[in-house]
Design goal:
By secondary structure, the chain is mostly beta strands. It contains one helix and nine strands; from the N terminus they run H-E-E-E-E-E-E-E-E-E.
């Protein structure tokens, strides 16, 4: 009877271990609804994100990763500024999905126009933003 219990425990452990997840499902999506192109530097690659499109990076191992963003300034605009999570870090835990959304606006009148690029970040997990908050 002892041998039978041992066999049941071994088979149970085998099914438990074989059912454990071995793939990484972490992803970061950079999405732009801004006026001009966004250029995102992330994990050693630069992605061009044209208006109304996105780029998803999948299978990212656990860890902290930084990203930075550059952008095209529309013709006729005299200054540019940014707000929000345009540059920063993301922390990837198990099954983390993050989206960085870029928007933009043109402020001012006449010959004094400012192009404002904003980025907001959302996640299904806790994310550290460039300002140090959650």
């Amino acid at each position: 009877m002892n041998m039978r219990r041992s066999l049941i425990v071994i088979v149970g452990v085998f099914f438990f271990v074989s059912g454990c997840k071995t793939t990484v499902t972490n992803s970061v999506t950079f999405k732009s609804i801004a006026i001009g192109n966004m250029y995102v530097n992330f994990m050693g690659e630069t992605f061009t994100i044209v208006p109304n499109s996105s780029k998803t990076v999948r299978n990212i191992p656990k860890g902290t990763y930084t990203y930075s963003t550059s952008y095209d300034i529309p013709a006729g605009v005299t200054t540019a500024s940014t707000s929000g999570a345009v540059n920063g870090s993301v922390i990837m835990n198990a099954d983390t999905r993050i989206t960085v959304l870029y928007t933009s606006s043109i402020q001012g009148v006449g010959t004094t126009l400012n192009y404002l690029v904003n980025a907001s970040i959302s996640s299904n997990d806790k994310v550290e933003t460039p300002t140090g908050g959650l």
